[in-house]
Amino acid sequence: MNDPDEPVESDGGLFIPFREYRRQVEETVITALTTKAQDWHYEQEVRFIYDLSQHSNQLVCENGRQFVAIPVDGLHEIIVGFRASAHLVSEIVRLYREGKIGKPKLFFSECHPHLYEVQPQETDDQYLLDYFNIIRNPSIPE
């Protein structure tokens, strides 16, 4: 571990204390995690970033992984990406049908033919299953 006051070379050949270098790196990480390209602004995405050492009491641990507990009525939409697996979609639909994720609107996405964006298509749970089992992930005929 570096001494907090140990000088380290930063961009441009400047020497700064290690603690400042570390602060800058942490700030850069947060900026990278919270910055979204303007082309994707229509997604209105919400991101949660947790420091596990400080927020472990707010998270649910399952199989060695940390999860945020989302209230059942907290999901308003689920948009399934066009590269999602049929297995993932089956799990989403199962949770949806069991009422474990509320009743959000369901969408699948397709790439726009001429623009750098995806187009969400609203659907119901059965069509979503069929779309990913038959159209997106067709089985190989024997």
What's a concise summary of this model?
Helix 3 runs antiparallel to helix 4 (125-136). The chain folds into 2 domains: 1-35, no CATH class; 36-136, no CATH class. It has helices at 18-34, 52-55, 86-97, 125-136; strands at 7-9, 15-17, 59-62, 65-68, 77-80, 105-111, 118-123.
Describe the protein's topology.
Layout: E1 7-9, E2 15-17, H1 18-34, H2 52-55, E3 59-62, E4 65-68, E5 77-80, H3 86-97, E6 105-111, E7 118-123, H4 125-136
Parallel strand pairs: 5-6
Antiparallel strand pairs: 1-2, 3-4, 6-7
Helix pairs in contact: 3-4
Q: Describe it for me?
A:
- The structure is a single chain.
- It is built from 4 helices and 7 strands.
- The strands form 3 sheets. It has a 3-stranded mixed sheet with strand order 5-6-7. Strands 1-2 form a two-stranded antiparallel ribbon. The protein has a two-stranded antiparallel sheet with strand order 3-4.
- The chain has helices at 18-34, 52-55, 86-97, 125-136; strands at residues 7-9, 15-17, 59-62, 65-68, 77-80, 105-111, 118-123.
- The mean pLDDT is 87.
- The chain has 2 domains: 1-35, no CATH class; 36-136, no CATH class.
- A hairpin with a 2-residue loop joins β3 (59-62) and β4.
- α3 (86-97) runs antiparallel to α4 (125-136).
- The chain is α+β, with helices and mostly antiparallel strands.
